């Protein structure tokens, strides 16, 4: 059984901010107010959502998206209250053409106080691009699976760590904190099951090269709560403090929210999500989108956990990027889809009056 390391509970009082949130977004037949009884999940009072839509969400889109649209998306996410946004990557444009305009995107985004932009970098060259673009944080990305490492960044896990070493040193000199992703931590599209011990080894190596935060990532979105807990426990046992662990779950098998609750009950307080559930990795066949930010906000605020995100403004961002992607794009499911459809129906009805 999973034993929560932390026992934070925040109960929602009628009329509180979280209560007001639920009444605006629910039908009369349902309520997300946290039950005032001992069966309520033990959750932290607040959670940081790292918005990865502009990078992980868009990198796999086949049709080129203009820098202007990416900038409009990022600015709306910041306006919605998201305070850490993975906006771009500086990777080889031959490998991921969609992300080739990272410098132009970063040159165009608003920089409101308190908003931190992050860039994904695979090596020193990428780090140099990120520093020039004046991001606030960078992320390197290793894998717990050898095959995925080869397919995604064309080197072994050990070689990837050696590439990160100079990049992390240069980031430290530039004053940029580094996040280290562990991709395929809950399973690999090529190797299948990934042992938690592999996650622990990579976590230890990423810490050793200077990563300040370790992000356990379910790249294929096939993990379940027990597998999520085992991977997070392995990273924690390798020496990563719970408050420096982040959870990144794709939702291919519809397990992401359950996995997030598990992570939060263990004491993790940082989770990744992408507006409108965008996403997928070009080198992870079969994997679909990230857990939708709307779904995470809806769940957490409904459980009395503060996210700082304004759901209406988040929908502005999702509506905007879905429009830019064209083809009548909508989130696949969940609160993200329901809320966006409801908003569009209301706008349509208002236009007819
Ligand atoms: C790592 C490499 C570069 C190795 O690629 P390579 O071909 O082995 O390396 P190379 O050093 O021979 O470089 C090839 C070319 O790329 C250039 N290059 C080299 N580095 C850079 C750079 N930073 N920025 C711009 N250009 C770069 C380099 O200069 C050269 O250019 P050329 O001489 O041929 O004209 C390549 O494999 C790569 O860029 N891979 C990135 C793949 C990627 O972005 N995948 C998606 C992100 S990972 C992910 O989605 C998972 C995650 C993090 O989200 C977690 C989760 O969801 O679970």
Furnish the topology, listing elements before pairings.
Blueprint lengths: L16 H9 L22 E4 L1 H5 L9 H13 L4 E6 L12 H7 L7 E5 L3 H9 L4 E7 L2 H8 L3 H17 L4 E6 L12 H13 L4 E6 L6 H13 L7 E5 L6 H11 L3 E4 L19 H10 L8 H15 L8 H19 L1
Parallel strand pairs: 1-2, 1-8, 2-3, 3-4, 4-5, 5-6, 6-7, 7-8
The structure holds 3-hydroxy-3-methylglutaryl-coenzyme A.
3-hydroxy-3-methylglutaryl-coenzyme A (HMG) binds next to helix 5, helix 6 and strand 5.
Task: Give a quick precis of the structure.
GO terms for molecular function: hydroxymethylglutaryl-CoA lyase activity; metal ion binding. By secondary structure, the chain is α/β, with parallel strands linked by helices.
The CATH topology label is: TIM Barrel
Order of helices and strands: HEHHEHEHEHHEHEHEHEHHH
Helix content: 40-55%
What structural category do the secondary elements indicate? Answer: alpha/beta
At the fourth CATH level, what is the homologous superfamily? Aldolase class I
What form results from the Cα inertia axes? globular
Total count of helical runs of at least 4 residues:
13
The CATH architecture term is Alpha-Beta Barrel
Unreliable spans: 1-33
What is the domain total for the residues? 1
Q: What is the highest CATH level, the class?
A: Alpha Beta
What amount of the residues lies in strands?
5-15%
The Rg value, from CA coordinates, equals 19 Å
Global mean pLDDT: 89
Q: Would you count the extended β strands for me?
A: 8
Question: Ligands bound here?
Answer: 3-hydroxy-3-methylglutaryl-coenzyme A
Enzyme class: lyase
GO molecular function, one term: hydroxymethylglutaryl-CoA lyase activity
Protein name: hydroxymethylglutaryl-CoA lyase
Organism: Tribonema minus
């Amino acid at each position: 059984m999973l034993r929560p390391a932390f026992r934070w509970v925040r109960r929602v009082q009628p009329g509180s901010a979280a209560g007001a949130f639920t009444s605006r977004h629910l039908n009369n037949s349902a309520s997300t107010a946290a039950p005032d009884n001992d069966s309520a999940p033990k959750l932290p009072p607040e959670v940081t959502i790292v918005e990865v839509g502009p990078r992980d969400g868009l990198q796999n889109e086949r049709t080129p998206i203009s820098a202007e649209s990416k900038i409009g998306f990022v600015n709306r996410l910041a306006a919605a209250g998201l305070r850490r946004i993975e906006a771009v990557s500086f990777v080889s444009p031959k490998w991921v053409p969609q992300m080739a305009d990272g410098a132009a995107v970063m040159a165009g985004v608003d920089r409101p106080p308190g908003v931190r932009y992050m860039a994904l970098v695979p090596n020193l060259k990428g780090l140099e691009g990120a520093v020039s673009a004046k991001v606030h944080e960078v992320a390197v990305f290793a894998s717990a699976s050898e095959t995925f490492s080869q397919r995604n960044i064309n080197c072994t896990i050990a070689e990837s760590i050696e590439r990160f070493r100079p990049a992390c040193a240069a980031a430290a000199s530039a004053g940029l904190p580094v996040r280290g992703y562990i991709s395929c931590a809950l399973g690999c599209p090529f190797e299948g099951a990934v042992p938690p011990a592999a996650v622990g080894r990579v976590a230890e190596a990423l810490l050793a090269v200077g990563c300040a935060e370790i992000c356990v990532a379910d790249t294929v979105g096939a993990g379940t709560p027990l597998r999520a807990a085992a991977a997070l426990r392995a990273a924690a046992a390798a020496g990563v403090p719970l408050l420096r662990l982040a959870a990144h779950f794709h939702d291919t098998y519809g397990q992401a929210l359950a996995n997030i609750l598990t992570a939060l009950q263990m004491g993790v307080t940082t989770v990744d999500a992408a507006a409108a559930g965008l996403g997928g990795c070009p080198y992870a066949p079969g994997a679909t989108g990230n857990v939708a930010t709307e779904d995470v906000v809806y769940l957490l605020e409904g459980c009395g956990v503060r996210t700082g995100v304004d759901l209406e403004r988040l929908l502005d961002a999702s509506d905007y990027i879905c429009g830019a992607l064209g083809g009548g794009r909508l989130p696949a499911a969940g609160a993200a889809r329901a809320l966006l459809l409801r908003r569009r129906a209301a706008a349509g009805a208002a236009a007819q009056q």
